[in-house]
Amino acid sequence: MQQPSKVLLIYTGGTIGMVQDVDSNALHPFDFSQISAEIPELNKLNCVIETIAFDVPIDSSDIGPSDWNRLANAIQQNYANYDGFIVLHGTDTMAYTASALSFMLEGLNKPVILTGSQLPIGVLRTDGKENLLTAIELAGDKDENGKPMVGEVAIYFEYKLIRGNRAHKTSTSHFDAFNSPNFRILAEAGVNIEYKNHHISPFGNGELKVVELHEQGIFVLPIFPGMAQDQVEFVLESNKNWAVILMTFGAGNIPMKPWFIDAIKNAVAKEKMVVNITQCTKGKVNMNLYKNGQILKSIGVIGGSDITSEAALAKLMYLKEKNLSIKELKTQFERPLRGEMTL
Ligand code: ASP
Hints:
With 343 residues, this protein is of the alpha/beta class. 27% of the residues lie in helices and 21% in strands.
């Protein structure tokens, strides 16, 4: 038998970590240091699991850059001692955290797998047990040369392993809650775990470096019919916003109102990043396709191709930390850095 793998499980909060009190039936957060008492099946895995937890578990709606920094630093501090990492996280913002970590963890060559559940782990029909057990298996899995099978940040949910910065929460009620609309999945768990090796990102060099995120000045603006001029101008003119992500119609279109174009031109002239991503779940922005898009491109709007809004936000936060010139920032944004977009 292969030597047992070592996996570090970091519990942040969310639905998965709840168990039902036998007497009162009330749900309360589960003590993850007692994990194998709660899930005896874990003892059957050829894996040593150690856990750390946020002092106060949080609903993932409360997550932000400071929590991402805590997570990334915890992974870095423990990097040499474990084969892989599991982040247990609420589902609501899991795709944001996965996107952020994918950029923050430079040089990563071990699996960092986020998972959670739609029903608490202490509920009879929970999806949490399967999600957790398989995520641990994935995080500890190695090939015949002892190399991890995955060296990137991913989400495991309901039999699918998805690249973290491609993931999107698509359901509040189905167990199959996450999708990877524009990129094929990395692995599928059935009777066996089937890795799709062609889709897994190239491994980093293993010298893990954390880039902490702090940036707040990014605004995501979904476009809708009947938007008012003063609303649009308010967002694009505000000094608080150095970057505005326009979530546009279809392949990257907005209403061709002269005031809209002027507001964008003024923002670009002030060296703000104005990014164009589509509000469609599937497909990409192509600013060459329609006259609308061509105009946006000609006034300096940056195309986000098929990036998700979660990944666009994280990528801008990450690039802002690099102190790049606006020209270089635009160039970097338009190219895939962690497999987050297809050109
Ligand atoms: N509101 C919860 C959270 O995101 C939902 C969940 O865990 O699924 O923390």
